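Work Package 3 (structural annotation) set out to generate three-dimensional models for the target panel prioritized at the project kickoff. During this period the team completed the workflow that converts sequence records into discrete structure tokens, so that structures can be stored uniformly alongside our sequence database. As a representative example, we reproduce one entry of 175 residues exactly as it appears in the project archive.
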Amino acid sequence: MSSHLRLIDPRDAPELARALTRNREFLAPWDPVRGDAYFTPEGQLSVISSLLAQRSRGEAQPFVIVDEGAVVGRLTLSGIARGPFRSCDLGYWLSEDRNGRGIMTSAVGEAVDWAFGEAGLHRVQAGTLRHNVASQRVLVKAGFEQYGIAPSYLEIAGRWQDHVLFQRIDDSTGR
């Protein structure tokens, strides 16, 4: 497979803006409501700058997903907590035309390897909408297990929606 993760870069803004614009309708049911500015290179540069600032504080690790030389999605480990918690949240999106090819499962695996390896975390958490079966399949294939339901967890597509919660624990750190 020719896909991989790499650290996001400000130079990714135009390509991310194009990918998000192409996938705007496809991603809308799974995302917060976003204004038009979000889908511009300037809007993406603002997002990237914020993510890189969080990274510099040790709070996030933002990646782009590259397939056949093109940026086709984004994956972010956010809310990185140290100390006794050593945990983070996983979020991602992938271009519609790349779905069903194992790209996201591979990307999630790479991100978890980074979290448990370089970052020294113990737990990675992810939430999906109850009806997002495809994303749930990705997580299960990547070794996550469902552990709960969070009512009205996030405002997605303009309304507060329940999420199915998944986690993956680094068994090498003990339970």
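The longest strand covers residues 70-81.
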